[in-house]
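User: Please write out a complete single-protein record containing the residue sequence and its fold in token form, without commentary.

AI:
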Amino acid sequence: MATSPPDGTHYVILKLDSAADNTLTTNVFPLKCASVGISTTKTIPSFNIPFAGLFTGEATTLAMNLGMASKTISLTGILLDQTIVRQFDLDDNPSGDFTNPALSSDKLTINMTAFEMAQLLHSTADSSAAQNMQNVAELTILMPSKVNSSYQYRNSGATSELVPFTFASRGAAGKLDNQGTLGFTSTFPDAMTDKGIEGFIRSFTSDHVGETLEVAFTLEFEVALPVI
């Protein structure tokens, strides 16, 4: 039963392309967010029927709901000195290259200043899909949830557990909320390490103010399926 995030602190986590599917601690950016704004904008082509009001006294508009929508997530928060964990390809980065600190279980754990974290995120937003140690491909926002993917309580006490926020609906293809779907449905999460939201960083802004230890930031994440 997962009732707290892996590090006990961060509920919002950016995952690099190189991060394993079942981890929220390695090759990730845990973020201290003060607010998370989620926006879903429906796109429905519509057009007015000429002369409808002439005969009925009421104008009529036809709409075609073709399942199109744009989804964005806005994050605001602060960066502080922070410890991150990286796991590099040892074929290209021999373990002997790391001495201060050294690798532990093939992983590097290192503490960075808030300004270094901001620089790292800017370079990440500036990367492409070809750089899997830089490119962010997934956003995990942990939320409390009592009801699982089958519309049943997650545990006997009907208490909440942490799972990633997604835009998926409950049920297999053609079942429950997915009635009417033809397949290829997203899976509603039942574990904290299930897939979060795929997409890319649209923009990242950091505010560097004199005589402060923290760096305020805003980040815009756009939901999308990667093509390359």
Summary: The chain has a mean pLDDT of 90. The helical segments are 52-56, 114-125.
